[in-house]
Write a structure and sequence with these properties.
The protein is of the alpha/beta class and about 260 residues long. The protein is built from seven helices and 13 strands. It has a single domain, classed as Rossmann fold (3-Layer(aba) Sandwich), CATH 3.40.50.
Length: about 260
C-alpha cells in the first residue's frame, strides 16, 4: 500500500487506454483519443528503442522530433563488437549478435524518414552547440501542432520540467518516466502537483528494474498525462489498484511487476 501522502498520484479512470510501442520496456500506456488527435511527437530520450516513434509515423503527415545526445552509430557498432567478443566466453549468442546488427540497420532506416528528425543534443536549461532548451526546442515545432510528449532522460527530467508549463496548451498528452525518486522526493511532488493544474494523471506504472521505497512508491515511476482543458472529464473516478491486466507489462520480462495500491 502506498503512503497516503502519494494519493495525489491515483489516476483518473479513462476508458480508452491502449498500449503502444514495444513489449516490456519501451511500451507506453496512453489514451487512444489523444494518440489519434496528435500529429506531432516530441521525444526526449531515444536509447535503443524507437518503437513508439515508428508507431506514430504510421499515420501519414505525422512528425517526430527526438533529442538524445548519447546515441550515434558508434554506440551500436560497439555493442555488436562486444556481442562478438562475449561469444567466445559463452556470454552471448548468435541471436544477440543478429539483434544488434538489425538494430543499427533499423536506426539507419528510420533516419531516412524525412518526418523523423533526430537531434543529437542534450536537453537542458541552456542553449549551446551541444545543448538545447525548451524555448529553442518548441520554436522548431510547427504552429498549431497537437503534441504528444515523451520523456525518458534518466533524471534530467527534474530540470527540464520546470519550464514546461509555458507550453501546456500545445501538449495533448505526455508520458514521463521519473527516476531516482528517493533522492528527488521533494522535486517530484512539486513538479507533478504543478503538472496536475494542466493535466490529468491517467496511468502510472512502476519500473521493476528498480526497487520500491519505504513509502510503497517505486524508485522509478512512469506516468501518463492528458490535457485537462482539451479532454475535460465530466465525471472523475480514481483508479485504486495497478498494474492493469492486458495493458501493463514488466520492464524486466522475467521479474514480477510492481503492485501499486492507494488507500482512497
Amino acid at each position: 500500500m502506498i503512503n497516503k501522502e502519494y494519493n495525489f498520484l491515483a489516476p483518473v479512470i479513462v476508458n480508452d487506454l491502449i498500449r503502444v510501442g514495444s513489449k516490456n520496456d519501451g511500451g507506453y500506456i496512453m489514451s487512444s483519443k489523444v494518440l489519434k488527435n496528435c500529429n506531432f511527437l516530441l521525444s526526449f530520450g531515444l536509447g535503443d528503442d524507437w518503437s513508439l516513434e515508428k508507431y506514430f509515423l504510421r499515420k501519414e503527415n505525422n512528425l517526430v522530433h527526438i533529442y538524445d545526445h548519447t546515441v550515434n552509430y558508434y554506440v551500436f557498432i560497439k555493442r555488436i563488437y562486444k556481442s562478438f567478443k562475449r561469444l567466445f566466453y559463452f556470454k552471448s549468442n548468435l541471436y544477440k549478435i543478429i539483434s544488434s546488427i538489425r538494430k543499427i540497420f533499423d536506426f539507419y532506416n528510420i533516419n531516412l524518414n524525412k518526418r523523423f528528425i533526430f537531434f543529437k543534443k542534450k536537453v537542458s536549461i541552456l542553449s549551446s552547440e551541444k545543448e538545447e532548451n525548451l524555448r529553442k526546442i518548441f520554436s522548431k515545432i510547427p504552429k498549431n501542432s497537437k503534441i504528444l510528449f515523451s520523456i525518458d532522460i534518466e533524471g534530467d527530467e527534474f530540470n527540464v520540467l520546470n519550464n514546461i508549463y509555458d507550453y501546456a496548451h500545445q501538449i495533448h498528452g505526455m508520458s514521463i518516466e521519473f527516476h531516482y525518486l528517493k533522492k528527488n522526493k521533494k522535486k517530484f511532488k512539486l513538479i507533478v502537483k504543478k503538472l496536475q493544474k494542466y493535466f490529468y494523471i491517467i496511468h502510472i506504472h512502476g519500473n521493476n528494474y528498480n526497487g520500491v521505497l519505504e513509502s510503497g512508491l517505486p524508485e522509478v515511476l512512469e506516468i501518463s498525462f492528458m490535457n485537462k482543458k482539451i479532454y475535460k472529464q465530466k465525471k472523475i473516478q480514481l483508479r485504486k489498484s495497478l498494474p492493469l491486466k492486458k495493458l501493463d507489462q514488466p520492464n524486466v520480462q522475467n521479474k514480477k511487476q510492481i503492485e501499486i495500491n492507494f488507500s482512497l
